[in-house]
Specification:
Blueprint lengths: L5 H8 L3 H8 L7 H14 L5 H8 L4 E7 L10 H16 L3 E7 L2 H12 L5 E5 L7 H6 L5 E4 L9 E4 L1 H14 L5 E5 L5 H14 L7 E4 L4 H14 L5 E4 L2 H13 L9 E6 L12 E4 L2 H16 L7 E3 L2 E3 L5
Helix pairs in contact: 1-2, 1-3, 2-3, 5-12, 8-9, 10-11
């Protein structure tokens, strides 16, 4: 059987073809009684809108690009929280009737391909994930004129974003260690070209300010290996340190491994606190104290920000709160 057309639906409903078109394209100017008879006819006839034709009328593709901008080594996309973010984004976009187009931008070539695809009108908007501070992609995509929202802050002032209160979370962790009587508290930072790494370092320093304790800093890259190596360096530089705040849980887990290897007890000799509260934090030995990051909520809020932008909404940034989950390591 041939698929029913707009004309057939209009005849069944007893209205004009243009009225049917406005109803199936979601226009809000149609009277409720007209909408009701049209939708009844649509259901009775099994009418399925022609997506290509509808897109020409509405200038909407009903697709959203989720762009992960990450270096080739996959520092962020390898993080166990990445799958949490992607699942939350997919669920929220699916609930909104949007097709998800996942794109990876790992090099200049792939970034250019993403920019060309977005500028070609294949999507209604873009959600950016895992951006480094110097990444040129946010500004390039903003210049396409399409709505763009970022999961975390970017260096592009025209791109609204949702972020954690990283500085406050880090300060919360350090104050917890101070309250436990720790006197020589070090930190292992993430890559300092990431806004969240710098903010967590700022929070660490802010919590120590005025306490008479000095900052003890080692650089990591958000991986377990970098946390293990940074912990080794910290112990060599200051054998008397009695606490460490790692800017994410993977580095904290690496630090726990080094402490165990050199024969130091956690938390008796050195207390350890991480950031993110990944699932593995509850299963380390000892279980890891960590700043909980509501990543799924942050992802959902970013999608809602983007959907609002697509509909002409505000460009306000959103800051998500976090809290501390105290376990055995501190």
């Amino acid at each position: 059987m041939r698929r029913p057309t707009l004309e057939v639906v209009a005849a069944r409903a007893g209205v004009s073809r243009s009225s049917v078109s406005r109803v199936v394209n979601g226009e809000t100017t149609v009277a409720p009684e007209i909408r009701e008879v049209v939708m009844r006819a649509v259901r009775e006839l099994g009418y399925v809108p022609n997506a290509a034709a509808r897109n020409l009328v509405t200038r909407r593709t009903h697709a959203v690009a989720v762009v992960v901008s990450d270096p080739p080594q996959g520092v962020v996309s390898d993080d166990p929280l990445f799958s949490t973010v992607v699942r939350a984004v997919s669920r929220e976009l699916e609930a909104a009737g949007k097709q998800v187009v996942l794109m990876l931008a790992e090099s200049d070539r792939s970034r250019a391909r993403v920019e060309e695809y977005v500028a070609g009108g294949h999507v209604d908007g873009v959600m950016l994930v895992a951006l480094h501070g110097t990444d040129p992609l946010p500004a390039a995509l903003a210049r396409t004129g399409l709505p763009v929202a970022s999961f975390n802050r970017t260096c592009a002032p025209d791109v609204p974003y949702v972020e954690l209160d990283n500085a406050a979370g880090a300060a919360l962790a350090v104050r917890h260690l101070l309250e436990r009587g720790r006197r020589r508290i070090a930190t292992i930072t993430g890559p300092l070209d990431l806004f969240e790494s710098r903010e967590r370092l700022d929070g660490y320093r802010a919590a120590l300010r005025g306490t008479g304790r000095r900052s003890i800093v080692a650089l990591g890259d958000f991986t377990r290996a970098s946390g293990a190596e940074a912990m080794r360096q910290l112990l060599e530089d200051d054998p008397e340190l009695d606490a460490v705040f790692a800017a994410n849980d993977l580095m904290a887990i690496g630090a726990l491994r080094t402490l165990r290897q050199v024969g130091l007890r956690v938390p008796e000799d050195v207390a350890v606190v991480g950031f993110d509260d990944i699932e593995a934090a509850a299963y380390t030995v000892p279980a890891l104290t960590s700043v909980r990051s509501p990543m799924a909520d942050q992802a959902t809020a970013t999608v809602r920000l983007l959907l609002g932008l697509i509909e002409g909404g505000s460009r306000d940034r959103v800051v998500m709160p976090n809290d501390l989950v105290v376990r055995e390591s501190s």
